[in-house]
Amino acid sequence: MHVSVSVIRGLRKYNFVSFFTFGQTGVTISTITTIHCNFHFTRVLHVSTSSSTMEQEAVAEVNSPESEEKTTTKEVTESGKRKSEETGDAEKKGRGKKRRGAGGKKLRPGERYVPPPQKRNPGVSFCKEHFDETDYYFDGGLRKVRPYYFDFKTYCKGRWIGKSLLEVFKHEFRAETMEYYHRAAKEGRIRLNDTPVEDLSVVLRNNDLMKNTVHRHEPPVVGRPLEVLVDDGEVLVINKPASIPVHPCGRFRHNTVIFILGKERGISELHTVHRLDRLTSGVLMFARTLETSQKLDQLVRDRQVEKEYVCRVEGDFPDGELVCEEPILVVSFKVGLCRVDPKGKESRTVFQRLSFNGKTSVVRCLPLTGRTHQIRVHLQYLGFPILNDPIYGSSAWGPHRGKGGQVDKSNEELLQALVEEHRSQESLLLLDIPDNAVGIEQESEKNKTSEKVETSDGTSELHTSGEIHQSDTQGPTGCSSGSETVDKVSQICTDPNANNTSLESEADQSTGNLTKATTQPETRDNLCSECKLDRADPTEKELIMYLHALRYKGPDFEYSTRSPDWAKEDWVETEWSLPDAD
């Protein structure tokens, strides 16, 4: 008789064929043993003999529970189980050794254990847990976010290794006083590897995960709803209002397109096709699926997507078609500052004047390449900066304001002058950097070697507001294009562990529905310096830049919006007012 037995153990597979005989019957059983590595069981595959009678007896014997206990098959199974248990014990012992310290080494007396860095999960998207951290309310034509608690996280950077937490806070997080950090530590808001830190003299080691719980305030944005132009299951196209960032960055999280769509329309898992500056309005496309994202990304890379913008610039723009082909160089990744420079990347924009009202001109813009701030930089170079451009219309560029590339400052001096100008006007928000913009000089030094702002595995970035900020993997968001999932927790974003804030009933401005919520006062925090300030609402000049993405056209699609009111020929600046949220 021939018996085939399969023994499966673990992941790797090995087959063994063996023969053994049942005493005087002369029945030979052949076993096929398949071995992997972690577990073990036996299954009889085939029984055969030269005699049909012997075959029936053997089959009955093999299929009988009582006889199975007596067969060699069970011995093989028990042997496999013993080996599996031994392997499991060995693995447990190995894991136990690893828990002694990083890399499995035994910790020395007084040595602190640092767990290995957590693996990023790029498939985790922003979800209801994140959207429910807080909510909006509308006031004076503005969309405002109720303050909420949030965990900023970052891994220990190379330059911090061997330094104490106190040293790092003192030299790199200078927006808050040392008294604040000591009080925050005593209240358990500062954690190292998920363990509250009361003594800031603890020395940082490689892979230390730092967390700082803050009471987070977000700047208000225009209260206009997000108008959905197309949503066909493959693409989502909206008309983005000015002042709203595309996705979380800097001080913005809930007041972003991604969060507004998630909170008010339940839309998530979107992929960017292109990006718009925070102060720019107009056509904004997202891909709904990875396949569509890859397709559109390839069209953008192959320059098969035609982009048309309209803007209002200072002065009388020349008639006819004007082409600018000056190369563009990024000066600061933190501020998103660029300038015309021979060392920059090839850039080409076609301009055409549409109208002139005696002070300002409406200009049609066709960017043929996709550089950061391309339209804004080229118009500045031509001597016609966009109206209300807080960067390229600034006097920090000097008397010529960058016309013709005339800048009597180094990149470092220009960056510092720009920060100082907006700090004096208390308008650093326009640069999308914190109010206390220390560390800009350090970034300028890094840009000398064309290095980006240092990040830790793309999960966090050192901002200068005295907080540990998420990076959200966002670089400058000008006219550049690139397909990526924008609502993933990584990036630019680790999972927050925030407390929900009580809400009031407010009208959902996108759908017109009433959002039910409890009516309790907003939270105020005893350590939060922002809670002690009474900030004035931003003005229209701080929220609107006169640049609008009018149309995006590909081989088989075309998406467009109506022209903004400020693009009308007879429009004058004094007529402008914030849109009503109702």
Task: Describe, in short, the structure shown.
With 582 residues, the chain is α+β, with helices and mostly antiparallel strands. The protein contains twelve helices and 28 strands.
Description:
One of its GO terms (molecular function) is pseudouridine synthase activity. InterPro entries: PsdUridine_synth_cat_dom_sf (IPR020103), PsdUridine_synth_RluA-like_CS (IPR006224), PsdUridine_synth_RluC/D (IPR006225), PsdUridine_synth_RsuA/RluA (IPR006145), RluA_PseudoU_synthase (IPR050188). Residues 471-484, 491-521 have a biased composition (Polar residues). Pfam families: PseudoU_synth_2. Residues 94-107 have a biased composition (Basic residues). This protein is of the alpha+beta class and 582 residues long. It has twelve helices and 28 strands. The strands form eight sheets. Strands 12, 13, 14, 15, 16, 17, 20, 21, 24, 27 and 28 form an eleven-stranded mixed beta sheet that branches. A four-stranded antiparallel beta sheet has the order 7-10-8-9. Helix 10 packs antiparallel against helix 11 (440-447). It is globular. The model is unreliable at 1-77, 90-102 and 434-521 (pLDDT under 50).
Tags for this entry?
alpha+beta, eleven-stranded mixed β-sheet, 28 strands, disordered N terminus, 582 residues, four-stranded antiparallel β-sheet, 12 helices
The end-to-end distance, rounded to whole angstroms, is: 86 Å
Name the beta content range: 25-35%
Radius of gyration: 32 Å
Helix content: 10-25%
Count of helix runs: 12
According to DSSP, the number of beta strands is 28
Principal-axes geometry comes out as globular
Poorly predicted sequence stretches spanning 5 or more consecutive residues: 1-77, 90-102, 434-521
Average pLDDT, rounded to a whole number, is: 73
Helix/strand/pairing category:
alpha+beta
Major sheet: size, sense and barrel closure? 11 strands, mixed
Domain Pseudouridine synthase RsuA/RluA-like: 235-380
Protein name: Pseudouridylate synthase RPUSD2
GO biological process, one term: mRNA processing
Function: Pseudouridine synthase that catalyzes pseudouridylation of mRNAs.
